[in-house]
Structures are given as C-alpha cells and as structure tokens.
Amino acid sequence: xxxxxxxxxxxxxxxxxxxxxxxxxxxxxxxxxxxxxxxxxxxxxxxxxxxxxxxxxxxxxxxxxxxxxxxxxxxxxxxxxxxxxxxxxxxxxxxxxxxxxxxxxxxxxxxxxxxxxxxxxxxxxxxxxxxxxxxxxxxxxxxxxxxxxxxxxxxxxxxxxxxxxxxxxxxxxxxxxxxxxxxxxxxxxxxxxxxxxx
Length: 198
Known about the structure:
The N and C termini lie far apart (60 Å). It is built from 8 helices and 8 strands; from the N terminus they run αβαββαβααβαβαββα. It has one domain (51-196): Glutaredoxin (3-Layer(aba) Sandwich). The protein has 198 residues and is of the alpha/beta class. The model is unreliable at 1-36 (pLDDT under 50). Strand 2 and strand 3 (61-63) form a beta hairpin.
C-alpha cells in the first residue's frame, strides 16, 4: 500500500532552503516562511521579495534580487497607517529625500516600504506622500497585509501598531551590510548614517 506524501514536511523542507518571498502568492510555503524566517542580520543574505510600486523611480513591481546587482539597496520599512500617518516616518523620509543626490551619486536604490491592510493600502500611501514627488533613486513599495514585514520578522503585532521601523542596507552581493530595527516609534536611521555604510 502506497503511503500519502507528508505535505507539511515537504513544505518545511522547501521553505528551509528557499530564499524567495513573492508577495501575492498564497501558498503553504509562504505561510511557512513567516515561521522560519527571522529578523535580518548583518552578513546574511537578504531574503528576496517582490512588491508592487506605489510611487517613485520604478513602475509595476520591484523584485529585490533583480536590482541588488546594480548597486547597493537601502530599505526603509515604515509604519504605514496605524490609525494616523506616522510623523516619525514622515521625518525620516524627508531626511532621506534631502540627501537624494548623495544616494544617486553612489548608485544606490532607496526603497520605502509602506505596510498595511491590502484594501486601503494604496489610498493611505498616497495620503502619506501627499504632494511629495519621490526623486530618483527612490521608490515606494506596498506591503499588503504585512506579508513582507512578517516574513522579515518585523511585524509589530500589537494594538495600533504595524511594523518595527527598520532600515536595511544591502550590498551588490545581496548580503546585509547594515540593519537598524527600532522597537519604538523613534530611533530612525539618519541619511548620513546610511551614507556612511555605502
């Protein structure tokens, strides 16, 4: 008698060896990645992802592994809309934009990740930017239903919270060169600190 395959064991094995998290694919592997992935660490390969573009330099979607070979990548994970637009996030983004020409001179992509419930995410992200036009090399990405922040171990799962504000610098080799995870609403990484890592 032939035994049935153990799909949970197969899924865990695939997830343990996979370094790709593709947003919008509802599979058992995706769910497992949320469990086995931990916070980003310096020296580790950055977990791959693909997210929809809300505004900025690029269009449609961005896949991390397709842009890391072009130069360093900075990822700033914002808090999205935890009941109101986050003033600390707005301050960090304004600081980064003021240094846009320095990032561009270093051939560095800056990805702003805006997490939140999928149904209202586009509208809230537009409200966050208001009349701000993102200069090159900035792109804002949408993280529907916190899939990326959960996969990265950065989901701040508490009332009126969304994600731990985090800044990550990834080198051309795809490895994490710098990470700062804030456990409060403050503690944001300044643009000058990021530029020192490039």
